[in-house]
Amino acid sequence: MIEFREVSKFYDTVTALRSINLTIEKGEMVFLTGPSGAGKTTFLKLIYAAEFPDNGKVMVSQWESDKLNGSSIPKLRRNIGVVFQDFRLLSNRNVFDNVALALRVRKVSEKEIKPIVLDALKMVNLRHKTDGYPSELSGGEQQRVVIARAIVGDPAILLADEPTGNLDPDTAAGIIRIFKDINARGVTMLIATHNPLLFRDTGKRVLRLDNAALIREEQG
After folding, report:
1. Which of 105-125 are b and which e, b meaning 16 or more Cβ less than 10 Å from the residue's Cβ?
2. Tens of pLDDT, residues 115-138
3. Which of 7, 49, 113, 178 sits CB 3.0–4.6 Å from 56 for a disulfide?
4. What is the Cα 46 distance to its own chain's centre?
5. Whole-structure pTM value
6. pLDDT tens digits, residue range 135-164?
């Protein structure tokens, strides 16, 4: 599903990632951890083609980083949902419209959009908040809207970049429970976090980055 082969990424004189080799199988839930600046965000960006490797190759399903072009990148991204730490919700749109936006940009008909959006909001326990605006929601609720937006297009892969970084421990635990439910549907998941409490006792693979290198793999 996701494979890195000798992948390195540089920004001027800074090495963001160095000689990364790994495989994430279809349907896996994997955690990526390490200190700030270890390369976690760059790692995720390489998967959804926001960045490209300077050395090596990234393979996601049938796509290969060295063969992607302007027309194939959007097709790749339709298979990937991304949950950002800073939410990136539109303040002038209600919950329904924030989630529906991901479908409208794909020209899905309005008739089809409503049941799909409502199903995504039900998945994150926000069906009752469709008419609310981001400013009216708690941080945990806003993050759940972001998750609904990420899964509304039925992606094969879900990436999350520090999804609980701004949340209290109880709210963070609720977000991880939602991720587990999504993973149970067969979605491949990669969650980047510096918080060991998120993956402790999960039994899931934990990839540990430090100084731009994958230093070890362990079990949560």
Report:
1. eeebeeeebeebbbebbebbe
2. 999 999 999 999 999 999 999 999
3. 7
4. 12
5. 0.93
6. 999 999 999 999 999 999 999 999 999 998
